């Protein structure tokens, strides 16, 4: 799998990083199998400069295409620079082999302040491309964190996966599975196989490296939960 991390690509007046990630994923889908786009929540703290909620995004690709990391990184860099928003501080990270140290870095960004220097030093130590693409380049922190958290497989929620965005309203569980959800389950892990699920704005959790729709019963149907 190839992990692409993006962060700090927006301002309060522009489209968000998640929107840009979906746009990039759509462009890459011509040449790659896109496995999803995942939102990762980082530390909520007034000392952390951010647009709204301090989240970053990871694009997940199947690594079945024979393209070099340098080629893909250059392509992504060009796309992000073409859509650069003045006032933003974008960062980009691309990796296929993600060591545990980077996974742990991602977890650290959810509970404590970290620095650009730490992110750059860690990426350099593992030969992971990490690029600042404008502004003060603080986005390199969240970009590396997104790669680590996505690679860990137990964090975040999908803002794009399969054909899930094509669904609307109440749908049977089978429709979710056909659209690309790996499983539907309750918060305590019980599988859900029957009944109707409200699919509007559903954002499956990334758990065990798979998109899992976590739902709870609400009267006459299953309602999705948004988990970080």
Can you offer a commentary on this structure?
By secondary structure, this protein is an alpha+beta fold. The chain has two domains: 2-157, Alpha-Beta Plaits; 162-224, no CATH class. It has six helices and twelve strands. The protein has helices at residues 17-28, 69-82, 100-108, 116-125, 139-152, 173-179; strands at 2-7, 34-41, 55-61, 91-95, 130-132, 157-160, 170-172, 183-185, 196-198, 205-207, 210-217, 222-224. The strands form three sheets. A six-stranded antiparallel sheet has the order 5-4-1-3-2-6. A hairpin with a 2-residue loop joins strand 10 (205-207) and strand 11 (210-217). The longest helix has 14 residues, at 69-82. The model has no long low-confidence stretch (mean pLDDT 93).
